[in-house]
Every structure is written in structure tokens, then in C-alpha cells.
Write a structure and sequence with these properties.
Layout (H helix, E strand, L loop, with lengths): L3 H6 L18 H8 L20 H4 L5 E3 L32 E3 L1 H12 L1 H13 L3 H10 L9 H5 L20 H6 L14 H19 L2 H10 L1 H8 L14 H18 L16 E6 L5 H8 L3 H7 L15 E6 L3 H7 L11 E5 L6 H8 L3 H8 L12 E7 L2 H6 L19 E3 L6 H7 L4 H7 L13 E3 L7
Helix pairs in contact: 4-5, 4-12, 9-10, 10-11, 10-12, 13-14, 19-20
């Protein structure tokens, strides 16, 4: 099967419009695959807990390396034990083979990791990676991809599952929401699976496998993961050769590919570059089933550990509890705590496993006002309280809010939760409503605690104006008189 690079060389590439969403997860992915006649097989990826760890992950066996000398090489830099000749004469499956390019760009970045703030940043990543790096490597290997691709997580998030970019990418693999949904990750009020280290790694492996099938080159696939496949395809047109450092790409992408090669060299032999080795042990956690909505602080109490430890192992939980709609949710706990969990958890009645925040309605309150005050979507308040039209709120009525009691104040004291859905002050609720199939103006007004007239006035709608799916309606701050 021809790669896109081969099509490019023959002048048979197809034109596409470039998107602004870094290329991840837009429908352009599927359009490109269709135009190029590529059949993408999304293979199942094993769960971490089912993986047996190969011995070569512990003894440091490296992939072959290609040396690409450049005048920019720094003679003062320690010679890489991976550079020079190809160390293994066997010819592996190209998709499983990731040659580490050693050129002037990579040498320069290696130097920066020893003498600049990048060193401290990577050291922090080494510490965070101890929980996840080994199982992530095995996931890549078991789907036929190079284990070294796991090093891309150092550059995307520094192995921080709570990482949240200024453009909205989240998790270890920095998926945008649209891309995440495309690859089957769930995102709602209760969970954000972009932050689930296991599920997001499976999605990243699937995406990288698709990119390799397009480009037939891991450096180009890694560049496309960062810049988007459309942008890389356009950069290949008219380029003298299909090489990341020879085509016009965003400076950020050039740096990322150079950083990836440099970090891979360091991870393979950290002591040469004065880094401590990463402890790549099997996962030090186990999964236990929880059969009803449960506060993470309750789980922590029965395990006799801190709630922070539970959240760090289950970073996908947006509200500090397991989803109410799941009757069998698997929670990760430290391996040494599993006996205490089994001894104590079943003794706690389901009604005592979660205590919701309650709010007493005051005169003049509307659902919209309450939702804005507590950073909760109106639809969630409606669902939790099973409100039906008419949804007028009587003073003195108690409402249940979909937040465990005291969790917000607990979360605000944890700096690592800032700029995540768990820390809602950084992500206020939207003041707009996108019309869905079956929506009516009167229904939307009721959902947001508004009068029909207030909603029509805010959007300049007449009494006979029809709305269509996809229309965006502005939600006024206050109910109109």
C-alpha cells in the first residue's frame, strides 16, 4: 500500500483545506483517508491491568539509531551511545521501527536539556512518568508500534494527566475535545476521559497508527500529531525531500520533533546525560469495582490513604465522585490498599457513599442564576432534581446540586487542579445554547429559568421566528420582566 509520501513524489496528492484545530479529530482525518483510498483498521488496545511486562522494558534494550551528522553538532556534548552506526542489522517491521535521528538540531536540544530550565522540567516529567511510562510503552508495543512513541507524552504534557492547554487540549496526550470524541473518549459533567491515562493512551496509539499509515515515516507522523496532517501534507508539496527538517512547518513543530529525538536518547541512557533512571515497574495500582456513585474521599477513607492519592490515580473524575449512571465503575487504588478496601467498603450503605451539595431557593432565584453561582449547567440541576415544566422555583425549596458536599473547597486548595473541569472557576459555564433536534424556544427558556419573551428579546426573535438545529442562542444574565 502506498503512503502519502509516495503519492506526493508521484504528484498524485489531493488538495484539502487546512484547519486550525492542529488537525486532531476534525472530520478532515476521515476525508483524507477516503481520498487516498486508505483503509484504517482501528485495533483493540489492551487494558493496562491485563498486560504482562516484557523483560526488555527493564533492561534498556534500544531501537536502532541513525546518525545524521551536521556542522551544528556540539563537540562538548557527551557522545550518544545510540549514535553512529545502526546497532541492529535486522530489518524489523517499518511501523515498529523508530530510528532516532542524531543531527545538529537534536544535538542542540540535547545540550539544552543539560544546561537550561528544560532539564528541571524533564526531571519533573521523569518523576510523574514512573506511574504510567512502562504500561504506556507496552500498549504501543502490543498494537505493533514503537515503544519509544511513549516519549511523546513528555513533550505534550510532561506526563501530567491534569495538563490543560490554552486552546483547550487536555490530558497526557493533549487531545482537543473534538478529536477525543472521534476516538471514542467520553467527556461530560462527570468524567473527562482525555485525562484517563489508560483510555487516552489507547486513543493516542490509534491516532498515531493512522498517521503512520498516511506518511510512512515516524518523524512525519509525530509532526502531524502536533501540527495536523493537512498542514504536513501541504508542506511536503514542492519540498526537496520528505524530511521534517527540510519542509516548511511551524517552528513549534520543528522544535517538538527535535525535542522528541533528544528526549528519546536521554530516556534510553539517562545516566550518560546525568539524569536518574525512570523506575519502569508494573503499575502500582489495582482496579476495584464501585457499584454506586461514591465520593473519592469515602474511597480514600476506607483505604486509609489521602483523597489526593485517589484523584491522582483517577484524574478523569471531574466532580470527585464516580458517575451516578455507572453501576460498575472501576476505580484505581494503590495496590497495598486493596485488602483494606475489600474489608471496609461493602459495609458502607450506598446512601452514605455520597452527600450532595444542597441549595435553598431564595426569592428571585432562577435556575440560570443558581447555575452561574455554582458553575453548574442548568440541565444538570434539572436532571438531578427531576424538575418538570413549569419549572418555577418557590422560595424555600431545596435543590440538589451535582457536586459532592465540600468537594469544591477541597479542590481549590490543590494547585494542580487549576485550569481543569475540576476547578470550575477557570472554566465558567457557557452563556449560549446550541439548538438541538427537537428543541423549542419555550423548552429552552424553561431549562434556563427564563421567560419565553426574555429569550426572544435577547436573540432578536419574533413571535413567529423558527429555530433550526445548530442555531446558537444567547442566554441573558437575568430573567426579563
Amino acid at each position: 500500500m502506498k503512503t502519502v509520501v509516495e503519492y506526493w513524489k508521484n504528484g498524485k496528492d489531493e488538495d484539502s483545506r487546512a484547519g486550525k484545530d492542529r488537525g486532531r479529530g476534525t472530520i478532515k482525518v476521515h476525508l483524507i483517508f477516503l481520498l487516498l483510498g486508505l483503509t484504517v483498521a482501528i485495533l483493540p488496545v489492551p487494558a493496562f491491568s491485563d498486560i504482562a511486562f516484557p523483560s526488555h522494558l527493564r533492561d534498556g534494550t534500544a531501537f536502532p539509531t541513525v546518525d545524521n551528522d551536521s556542522p551544528r553538532n556540539d563537540p562538548g556534548l557527551p557522545a550518544s551511545p545510540l549514535s553512529g552506526k545502526v546497532q541492529d542489522a535486522r530489518k524489523p517491521n517499518p511501523a515498529k521501527y523508530l530510528p532516532v535521528v542524531m543531527n545538529g538540531h537534536v544535538s542542540e536540544h540535547l545540550q539544552m536539556y543539560q544546561t537550561s530550565q528544560k532539564r528541571e522540567h524533564l526531571l519533573e516529567g521523569f518523576r510523574k512518568a514512573e506511574t504510567y511510562l512502562a504500561p504506556v510503552k507496552v500498549v504501543f508495543e502490543m498494537v505493533g508500534l514503537p515503544a519509544d512513541l511513549s516519549n511523546l507524552a513528555f513533550l505534550e504534557s510532561n506526563f501530567n494527566p491534569f495538563a490543560y492547554s490554552r486552546v483547550g487540549a487536555a490530558g497526557i496526550w493533549q487531545f482537543m475535545e473534538s478529536t477525543a470524541r472521534l476516538f471514542g473518549l467520553e467527556i461530560n459533567w462527570w468524567v473527562d476521559e482525555r485525562r484517563d491515562p489508560e483510555k487516552s493512551t489507547r486513543a493516542a496509539a490509534t491516532y498515531l497508527k493512522q498517521l503512520y499509515r498516511i506518511f510512512g515515516s515516524w518523524p512525519l507522523a509525530i509532526a502531524a500529531y502536533n501540527a495536523g496532517e493537512v498542514k504536513v501534507l501541504r508542506a511536503l508539496r514542492g519540498a526537496p525531500k520528505a524530511d521534517v527538517w527540510s519542509i516548511r512547518l511551524p517552528r513549534e513543530t520543528w522544535h517538538l520533533v527535535s525535542d522528541f529525538m533528544a528526549v528519546t536518547v536521554i530516556v534510553k541512557d539517562p545516566q550518560v546525560y546525568l539524569f536518574p533512571p525512570i523506575q519502569e515497574d508494573s503499575p502500582n495500582y489495582v482496579k476495584v469495582p464501585v457499584d454506586s456513585c461514591t465520593d473519592i474521599r469515602v474511597i480514600a477513607r476506607v483505604c486509609d490513604i489521602s483523597a489526593e492519592q485517589i484523584l491522582l490515580l483517577n484524574p478523569e473524575l471531574n466532580q470527585g465522585c464516580t458517575p451516578p449512571y455507572e453501576s460498575h465503575y472501576e476505580v484505581r487504588i494503590p495496590m497495598e490498599a486493596q485488602d483494606r478496601f475489600w474489608e471496609n467498603f461493602s459495609a458502607i450503605p450506598p446512601e452514605e457513599r455520597i452527600v450532595w451539595t444542597r441549595y435553598t431557593v431564595h426569592k428571585g432565584d432562577t435556575l440560570l442564576k443558581i447555575g452561574r453561582r455554582y458553575h453548574v449547567p442548568v440541565r444538570m440541576i434539572v436532571q438531578m432534581n427531576r424538575l418538570r415544566p413549569p419549572r418555577s422555583l418557590a422560595a424555600g425549596k431545596d435543590l440538589i446540586l451535582p457536586i459532592p458536599e465540600g468537594f469544591r473547597s477541597w479542590a481549590e486548595e490543590r494547585p494542580f487542579l487549576k485550569r481543569t473541569a475540576i476547578f470550575p472557576a477557570s472554566k465558567p459555564p457557557a452563556s449560549a445554547h446550541v439548538v438541538q433536534k427537537g428543541d423549542t424556544l419555550s423548552g429552552i427558556a424553561r431549562d434556563h429559568g427564563l421567560s419565553l419573551k426574555a429569550l426572544q428579546t435577547a436573540n432578536g426573535l419574533g413571535a413567529r421566528t423558527a429555530i433550526q438545529p445548530g442555531d446558537r442562542l444567547q442566554i441573558p444574565d437575568h430573567q426579563a420582566d
